Every structure is written in C-alpha cells, then in structure tokens.
Amino acid sequence: MRALRTLAGFAILLVLGAGAFVAHAWQSEIDPIDPPAQTSFDRALVTRGADLAAIGNCNVCHTAPGGEPFAGGLGIPTPFGTIHSTNITPDPETGIGRWSEAAFIRSMREGVDREGRHLYPAFPYDHFTLVSDEDNRALYAFLMTRKAVAATPPANELSFPFNLRILLAGWKALYFREGPFQPAPNRSEEWNRGRYLTEGLSHCGACHTPRNRLGAEKKDEYFAGAEVENWTVYAINMNSPAPVPWNQESLAFYLRHGWHEHHGASRGSMAPVTANLGSIPKADVKAIAAYVADVMGRPSQERIARGEAALATARKESESPFAISANSTNGIGEAIFLSACQGCHDGRRPVPFGGLNLHLSSAVNAPNAQNIINVTLFGLPAARGEPSAMMPAYRGVLNQDQLVALLDYIRDRFSEEPAWTDTRERVAATMNGEREVPIYRMDGTTQAPPETSMRTAP
Predict the structure, then answer these.
(1) pLDDT score at 320
(2) How far is 49 from 276, CA to CA, in rounded Å?
(3) pLDDT for residue 446
(4) Are 245 and 304 spatial neighbours (Cβ–Cβ below 8 Å)?
(5) In DSSP terms, which residues pair with 231 in a beta bridge?
(6) 16 within 8 A of 8, measured Cβ to Cβ
(7) Burial level of 44, CB count in 10 A (0-12/13-18/19+)?
(8) CB environment 132-168: b (16+ within 10 A), e (fewer)
(9) Domains in the chain, start-ordered, CATH in brackets?
(10) Cβ count near 129 (within 10 Å)
C-alpha cells in the first residue's frame, strides 16, 4: 500500500510538473494586421534598416540559392536535422506581411513568432535579444518595404523529439537570457558600440564559438572557433591562428574590403559577411574591429616577433624565386606546389589580385586542413562585374594522394605547427561529397549555378 501511495505521489508530481512546463512554454498569438503601405515608412528609417540588415546578414540565411532575396527556403544543417529559413518578405500569406511591429520585436527579443510558436535558435535570437527597440523598428521598416514574394519554405527535417517546438521552452530556460544590451559604463562609446553590434545583430559568436550537444554556445569558449558548413571558422580570441597578429586597423580593413595584405581574402561563409559589411557606415565597422581586437588581447612580444619574422620571410621570397630542394622528403607535394601554386603565391603580386604568401596564411596554421582543402578543390570564384581576388579550382585535376601530398608539403614548408593528423580523411570526405561545401565569391554571391545575390539595395 505504501509503495502504491508513493507511486501515486510521483505521478501527481509528474502531471503537475508537465502542466507547469506547458504553462511556462505557452505563448499567446499576436493578432494579424493589414499589411501597411510601403509609403507609410520613413525613408531615413528604411535606409538605416538596410544597414542593420547588412550587419545582421539577414539576406544570407533568408535567401535560398536561386531564390528571391529574403524569401527564405535556405536549408541550414544542424546536428539535429535541417532547418529551413523562413520568408521575411512582406507577403501577407507566406511572409511577415501581417506581422505588427510588436510581433516582429517579440521574435527578435524572445524568439517567438506571431502565432506564439517558439523559434529554433538557428534564428539567433540569443544574440538578437540584445538589439534595441529603435533598431528593431528600423529593421522592420526595411523588411516591410522589400518586394513581397509568395514562397513557402520546405518543412524542417528534424528527428524526434527535436521536432517538438514546445521543448524549445526548456532550451531557453537553460541557455537563453533575454536582452536588451546594457553598455559597460567604464568602456568607451566605440567599444560599447562594437560589443553591441558584435554580440547582438552581427551574432559573430554564432559561428566563431563552439557549441555543446544541445546546440548552445559554450560561453567559456567564447570566440574559440568552430566548424560551420564544413569550413573551419577560426578562433578570434587569443588563440587566433593568424601568423601576423590582428589589430583594430587590420580587422577594420579586412571586414570592410574582404581582404588584407597580411591575411589574404575572405572565403567560405565569411565572404558574404565582408560583402555586407562593405556597405555599412565605416564607424560601425571600426567599432566592431575595436571590440574584436580587444577580445583577442594584446599579443605577446614573442608572437609579435614571430609575425615580423613571417613578414620578413615573405618579403625575401618575393624577391628571389624558390627552386626545388635536393633534400626534399616530399618531392611530389613540392613539385605540385611549384607547378600549380608558386606562380600566384610567391608574393610578387600583392593581395587581393595575387595570392597570399603562405607563411602569412591562417589556413596553413589552422588546427586542421579543411579550409585549404576547400579552396584547393573548389577555388575562389571571381566576383561578378568587378575586380576581385580569384583562385582556380583543382577538383578533377588532383587525385586524393596528390592533394594529401601537397597539403603535407605546405604545412611542413610554411608553418611551424605540427603536422595535421586527419588530412587524408578530410580530403576523402570532401572529394567524395560527404562534406557539402558552399562556395562564395568575394562579393558574397554563391558560385554558379545557381547564383544568389547577397547584396540588396534599400
């Protein structure tokens, strides 16, 4: 009898707990509105919203390859399945045309859509919660003045129980802290502006910070680097692999132009980021760079000396041609490098129209070879209609053994870091198509076919 009463007590507690969770998880619907006329929005507010949308890279995630800007449908891979981005054009049936400003702000601040459904954190509301109401109003004005596109994204492909949105309330209880941003009173206005943009709308940590098993960022490994879309996203803290240490000036130039003479050109999913940041006010880019440089910290004298040595070596090699070594232990890799790579990467033509000397390459000094594998196989396609960096693709030219030999040679020749240990496995997985790699031009457009513009005029 006592065991029965105990079991009944547990059952009651379970029911009460489930009821409390459901009550906590429930969110009300916000009534739909009639789509407002585009002329009702102040043009200055729309223009400011365009800058904010570029900072947030809204077009990158909410535009499918070959699709209309902001119409959604892009498949975002996660460890739990594929989530498809939503249509955020003002279409009244499939987009946000019937969303009020209050509904939009709630989605940004709380991660809840107009109908009251919890949003998956692939939409990074854990960062967007920091955005001010004023900036949210500008974003809303910008999006509601875009071309309305009738487009319904594919259904999400998530396994059980991750397809149950109600469980997101539990995820939020564990990992989500609602904003808005609070400036640090003892720091400069520029630093606070940079932190607000970096941690908020730019959501840099969404890619540059590793995640735990439930998909939340590891706050104790802030900006420590991760792998996204089968690209290695470099650490942008004190563990940055850049041979020449970054500073505010070099970061600001890179973010605005998509390249820097000591760091090379942006590629992979960073290319649309720099393409978007190239269109926003310089002061905002400078503020982002100031904050990130502060997170990286002042480099040690030893690291500064290593960077200066790398620059000196790069300059020396640009003045005299490199010949085959009689004592090389990797003759195949060396021969491939001299015939296919040296002509561009000898430093004689400055970045971005010449290849970076690999003594200065973050990819060569990275924890793994994935980024060099990607750019070697798929290249860096030229921007459309404007001068830009480019690199030919060697997929179909090099076989697996040749590519591994080349990578081993490059790591040994241009880096003081230990040899990579999983290069052959990564090469095989990438060449066999097991690792799907998105390729972007420097202007932020995807490689043809299909092409998707990452720049959208106000």
Answers:
(1) 75
(2) 13
(3) 61
(4) yes
(5) 228
(6) no
(7) exposed
(8) beebbbbbbbbbbbbebbebebeebebeeebeeeeeb
(9) 22-175 (no CATH), 189-431 (1.10.760.10)
(10) 18
Closest CA to 229 of 207, 198, 255: 207
Question: Residue 168 is encoded by which pair of tokens?
Answer: 């997101």
Specify the pLDDT at position 322: 63
SS3 117: coil
Q: How high is the pLDDT of residue 434?
A: 83
Cα-based torsion angle of the residue sequence 15, 16, 22, 23 in order, rounded to the nearest 10 degrees: 160
Assigned token pair, 302? 């030893």
Q: Please provide the DSSP assignment of 340-393 as one string.
A: IIHHHHTSSS-TTTSPPPGGG-TTTTSSSSHHHHHHHHH-BPPPSSS----B--
d(CA 116, CA 166) in angstroms, rounded, equals 11
**Coil, helix or strand at residue 422:** coil
Number of H helices, E strands in the chain: 18, 7
H helices present in 57-186, as ranges: 58-61, 101-110, 125-128, 133-143, 168-175
- Strand ranges in 390-441 using DSSP code E only, listed in sequence order: none
List the chain residues with pLDDT less than 50. Answer: 3-24, 447-458
Pairing relationship of beta strands 81-84 and 157-158 according to DSSP bridges: antiparallel
Tokens matching residue 101: 């400003």
Q: What is the pLDDT of residues 336-366, one digit of tens each?
A: 999 999 988 987 888 888 899 999 999 999 9
pLDDT digits (tens, 9 = 90+) for 40-87: 999 999 999 999 999 999 999 999 988 999 999 999 999 999 999 999
Residue pair 87/72 in contact (Cβ under 8 Å)? The answer is: yes
The answer to whether 197 and 135 have CB atoms below 8 angstroms apart is no
- Predicted confidence at residue 6, as pLDDT, reads 44
What DSSP designation does 165 have? G
Token pair in block for residue 246: 């970054």
Provide the token pair at 443: 């202007």
- Max alpha carbon distance in the chain (Å)? 92
Shortest CA distance to 76 belongs to which of 215, 201, 178? 215
Give dist(CA 310, CA 394) in Å, integer: 27
Structure tokens at 355: 């290849």
Q: Which of 297, 299, 260 is nearest to 442 (CA)?
A: 260
Contact 49, 138 (CB under 8 A): yes
128 residue type, one letter? F
Structure tokens belonging to residue 117 = 């459904």
Give the separation between CA 28 and CA 319, rounded to whole angstroms: 68
